[in-house]
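re: ur question from earlier - yeah i can do the single chain one, its not a big deal. heres the input i used so u can compare w yours
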Amino acid sequence: MVSSASDNGWLRAMPWVFVLIWSTGFIVARYGMPHAPPMTFLAWRYALSIACFLPWIWLAKVAWPQSRQQWLHLGVLGVLMHAGYLGGVWAAVKAGMGSGLSALVVGLQPVLTAIWLSSTGGQVTRRQWAGLALGFTGLVLVVSRKFGAGGPGDTATWFNLSFAVIALFSITVGTLYQKRFVRPCDVRSANTVQLLAAFAVTLPLALLETEGMAWNGQLVGALAWSVLGLTLGGSSLLYLLIQRGAAASVSSLMYLVPPTTALIAWVLFAEPITAVTLAGTALTAVGVSLVVRPANT
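and the output i got, formated as tokens:
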């Protein structure tokens, strides 16, 4: 009875823990990107994450996916959720986009997910359309003020915005793909298969980069947290939440990521938080909440 209550408490806390961890991903990108090219950094991240998962799988005698089809689905998921999403975010930050703005763009993911799921069932409500409009308006408000403005690491351009949009669509399609095609299996082996696919896609791109890795304490720290906190922790939690049917809880909390990231970026990097930024972020948060809120509330 105690164990069951504890398990239920952990399941309820998982979305909140996930959001806290996920918010640090954009901050880590700002820490690491001045010292490394994005694809090379991510190739190291995937390789080290795989090196952590493999002994864990072997010692715990974790089962691997049983069918070739399941391996394929997990591989596609890895390309979307790791290579596409992370590659887009890291490339956007490397190209000069601030942590707060990149989080805000990707923060529209639950809106796109909810609209897609609703539209396939033919039940897109007026409230959801209003939420979509508000979220988009808030994003445009923030982005428009940052075009050509801000200092290094806090400027929006069509170039870095395109990378953030790639990340947005990758995580949206990845979430929908997992719900539709990926059957439940152990999170450790599932994550390892995804990372192998992401590494295979990212490594050739990394070999094309001419900038080297400037190894220092800041880069090592960013890489360590990326592996231990974000991949082993955050990505595993995301997989578990979707697998256990708590994706709605994640979506309803995901709109807390942009303001949390913006606050941390303001403290650490002095990324400006103007009245327009606050207004746009608030509009986006309200819009997302309208989209993902259950119809009977």
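Residues 33 and 94 are 6 Å apart (CA to CA). not sure if urs matches, ping me
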